[in-house]
Amino acid sequence: VSSEETIPFEVTYGWIAKYREQVQLWDSFDVVHIHYGFEFEDIKTVETALDLVRSHRKPVVFTCHELQSVHGIPDDQYQQYISLILKHADAVITLTDVARRELTSTWRVTDTVVIPHGFVTQPQCKDPSPDAVPEVLFFGTLRPNRDVVTTFVNAVFGTMDQYHISWVTRPFTANQLDESARLRLALSLAAGNPRVRIELVLPLTDDEVSNRMRCADILALPYNWAGHSGQLELAYDCGLLPVVANVGFLAGQHQLWPRENLSTPDAIEVNWSDGKSWLYQARFLQGLRDALKVLPDFRHSIDLEQRKSFRATEHEQFQDSHLAVYRQVLNKEKNS
Question: pTM score, two decimals?
Fold first, then answer.
């Protein structure tokens, strides 16, 4: 191994295969921790990489962020990846008690460790002007687990002059523009309308995301499904009122906060989980309208100093909890 070769910030399965025989590099780390992105690799590549990890006697820790692919990979295919990784995992972490129960009932996984993922940025809110028109923010790329475009279009037509409406996303691909009439409609609505804006950005750092969020007032989260939402966490730390579909395990994520005696204002939850999909968009639009009524009270209910203290404690617990898992799997490997 050349002296310049180091472990990359994000290790790929291809990197593992490339350096399969480089003992010096393998000896420079202790644990392989898998988070996400595995579904973009061929499943045989993932299996080969995991076998290599096992051959080097490196324990595997798996944080199961999502039980369904947020990128639209078919459920049966995605579950094959989950099953494969669980078979190789020495420890499994998930983010909510609800997800832990799902792992137990569906995959018969026991001893799952729940470690909430919350801290991204120091809690900080803008000082709102009482005369300013509130901004509704949609943040993120086009993904199957979020119906951003339809909700954005309905928000433009349905909120009239009550809000400024912004969507921050990455540049669109040719296929997205060719295949989506709804997207083209959304783009046309932003052209020449001073209260509607679409911002195309390159991948942003956490600080850049946080700074942009703090400029807004309401965060629209039209999830079709989700196991966990970092944006929902970030909304509270940036002083945004979340309007969120009540799907997946998001409610379980919210239920974790009171255990730390944190007074978290309620999000506006929109019912997207009863199967009446023809009503979902009307409900979300009503949620955005309701947000305007409660926004002043929401702002006053956020205790920034309390949140700062909570996030600092949470981050320490996050690190300590992971360290405990790593030590556990290393001791298990040592004694095997």
Answer: 0.87
pLDDT in tens, the chain (336 residues): 344 567 777 777 877 877 777 777 788 889 999 988 888 888 998 999 999 999 889 999 999 988 888 887 888 999 999 999 999 999 999 988 888 998 999 888 888 999 988 666 777 877 767 678 899 999 988 888 999 999 999 999 887 678 899 999 999 999 888 888 989 989 998 888 889 999 999 988 888 999 999 999 999 999 998 888 889 888 888 889 999 999 888 877 765 554 455 566 678 999 999 999 999 999 999 999 999 899 988 887 778 888 888 888 888 888 999 999 999 999 988 887
Three-state secondary structure call for residue 166: strand
| Cβ-based neighbours of 5, under 8 Å, separated by 6 or more | 19, 22, 25
Residue ranges per structural domain of the chain: 13-114, 135-309
Contact 107, 89 (CB under 8 A): no
Listing DSSP states for 50-117 in one string gives HHHHHHTT--EEEE---SS-TT---HHHHHHHHHHHHHH-SEEEESSHHHHHHHHHHH---SPEE---
Task: For residue 113, list its beta bridge partners.
Answer: 93
CATH class given for the domain over 135-309? alpha beta
C-alpha angle 228-300-204 in degrees, rounded to nearest 5: 40
CB atoms within 10 A of CB 99: 23
Adjacent-strand bridge partners of 166: 137, 197
